[in-house]
């Protein structure tokens, strides 16, 4: 999305995949990607690859999921710690609820995850095995305070930038 938003081009993903190049999917900072929704990024990347190649079978959902997880971790040199569920690796996990009315019917859960679900369907999040989000709510008082602090700091910087730019 950030490349589209900033009009900086479209990666030739279908060709890269044909050449055996490992492709990872991630999100940028909020300055160039307002939603920070990895599922939306994956969907957009998959659709652009399919559309540019003219082949619906380009980049199937299982490979897109791999690009979001292990391939992204490998691109960052972190594949020994994250990117797959294995003994000895960090348990960074999400539980996504596919029961929402807008996601029905679910014929292929993985395809539905990639092509229909979004961050609003994330129900639980664990980082290094510790619950961070439970039932779509921050799981600890510390996390809630941290979010409140970030929002407060953002407001301060927003106001300062406004003052600088206005005069």
- Architecture (CATH level 2) name of the largest domain: Roll
Q: Whole-number average pLDDT? A: 91
Placed side by side, the strands forming the largest sheet appear as: 1-2-3-4
Query: Total number of helical segments?
Result: 7
Helix content: 40-55%
The biggest beta sheet, please? Answer: 4 strands, antiparallel
Which outline best applies? globular
| CATH fold topology of the largest domain | Urease, subunit C, domain 1
**In what range is the share of β-strand residues?**
5-15%
* Category from helices, strands and their pairing: alpha+beta
- Spans where pLDDT lies below 50 across 5 or more residues: none
Nearest-angstrom radius of gyration?
Answer: 18 Å
CATH class of the largest domain: Mainly Beta
Structural account:
With 167 residues, the protein is an alpha+beta fold. The chain folds into two domains: 2-135, Roll (Urease, subunit C, domain 1), CATH 2.30.40; 138-167. Helix content is 44%, strand content 10%. The protein is built from seven helices and four strands. The chain has a four-stranded antiparallel sheet with strand order 1-2-3-4. Strand 2 (122-127) and strand 3 (130-134) form a beta hairpin. Helix 3 (38-53) packs across helix 4.
SSE map:
Layout (H helix, E strand, L loop, with lengths): L1 H4 L7 H6 L19 H16 L7 H8 L1 H6 L17 E4 L12 H7 L6 E6 L2 E5 L2 E2 L2 H26 L1
Antiparallel strand pairs: 1-2, 2-3, 3-4
């Amino acid at each position: 999305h950030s490349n589209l938003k900033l009009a900086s081009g479209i990666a030739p993903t279908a060709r890269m995949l044909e050449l055996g190049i490992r492709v990872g999917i991630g999100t940028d900072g909020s300055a160039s990607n307002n939603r920070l929704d990895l599922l939306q990024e994956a969907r957009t990347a998959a659709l652009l690859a399919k559309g540019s190649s003219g082949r619906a079978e380009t980049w199937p959902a299982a490979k897109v999921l791999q690009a979001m997880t292990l391939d992204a971790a490998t691109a960052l040199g972190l594949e020994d710690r994250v990117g797959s569920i294995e003994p000895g690796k960090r348990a960074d996990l999400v539980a996504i609820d596919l029961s929402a009315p807008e996601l029905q019917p679910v014929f292929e859960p993985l395809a539905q995850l990639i092509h229909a679900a979004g961050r609003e369907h994330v129900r639980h999040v664990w980082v290094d095995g510790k619950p961070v989000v439970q039932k779509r709510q921050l799981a600890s008082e510390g996390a809630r305070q941290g979010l409140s602090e970030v929002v407060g700091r953002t407001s301060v910087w927003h106001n300062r930038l406004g003052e600088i730019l206005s005069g």
